[in-house]
Task: structure prediction
Amino acid sequence: MMGIVSKFTILLLFLLACNTFTSTDAYDPLDPNGNITIKWDIISWTPDGYVATVTIYNFQQYRHIQTPGWSLGWTWAKKEIIWSMTGGQATEQGDCSRFKGNIPHCCKKKPTVVDLLPGTPYNQQTANCCKGGVLSSWGQDPANAAGSFLISVGSAGTSNKTVRVPKNFTLKAPGPGYTCGPAKVVKPSRFITADRRRVTQALTFYNDTIVRCPTCACGCQSNMTQPGSCVEEDSPYLASVVSGFGKNSYTPLVQCTSHMCPIRVHWHVKLNYKEYWRVKITVTNFNYRMNYSDWNLVVQHPNFSNLTQIFSFNYKSLTPYGKINDTAMLWGVKFYNDFLMQAGPLGNVQSEVLFQKDAFTFDKGWAFPRRVYFNGDNCVMPPPDAYPWLPNSSSRQHISLLTLVMTLLSALTVMYEYA
Result:
């Protein structure tokens, strides 16, 4: 049993700050309270320091922390060192030459810690560890939205009066980028035992037109300047090219298209009834190097307040604007279509959505979403004048096929950045 209780917990609040925007535009209106919170709970004292459980909570509604996972860094306030870790490891040991005999795990003034990989031996694990740094979003899968590691800190002092809070925390993860707030001392966390009998706490439209994807939406690359950036779907060399680059490369190898994007979202207005209308949604993976597990879509459309039924996808209302229900998070059903395979015959997932019309109108492009995210990446939308602007009334019960093709704005560049 780990030691008795004191009151020392460090709470860190990491607010989303997209590096593609200015600081005044970092606020995400679709996830206004989304953040990543780090809790640093001292659970026992040692002769020259303490043992702490560090837990990372992904409180973002739809942004996962994806492969290659998170890395957490900080600056020690004094001359602290890390004696040992469970469930995580420091990326560098640093200069430990001043120690004789028992060598610390890390002696760096500014350590960086990463999660251990799945399959780690049990004696090196702790609760919620060993996911390779991958965390699900809180809105989609809260049971897998936290990760943790155990750390034994030395040269730190042995009481609340001598221990100092680490400074200058940094969190790195795939995505738009994160900025860290200052550490704050808060109430101690409470831990419930597996048998739940004991609680301990820390020491402290009407048209046949396809609205096409913008050309080079994700940045077309010439095979002369960046050879191997794309490959033709019917190329006889495709299999050897994909296997030659290996499975661990995070640089996209996309199917050669006019838009050169790794993902396409297809919004197809399929049927128009008197009181209802029906949409087919298809997500296609064009990236030969990436299998997206636990993918999600965030779609903003005013008629989600009258959603009647959704088939083969999960649904959750985000309601970022209080009572206004116009934003939905959609994701796959476990063991059915939650895994979006790489480019090829199995590289797509699809579902249909039924809306009640109420006062809804098809006029002036209102059949289309206002905003779409895939795994938190903003999608390129066609310009407003590309949508059909036709009358809203019709004697036909069904409308003709109407398709909207949307592609990711930043996924390609983000993948290159974090490769």
Observations:
- The CA atoms of residues 206 and 399 lie 5 Å apart.
- DSSP finds two helices and 28 strands in the chain.
- Confidence is low (pLDDT under 50) at residues 1-25, 391-419.
- The two ends are 42 Å apart (CA to CA).
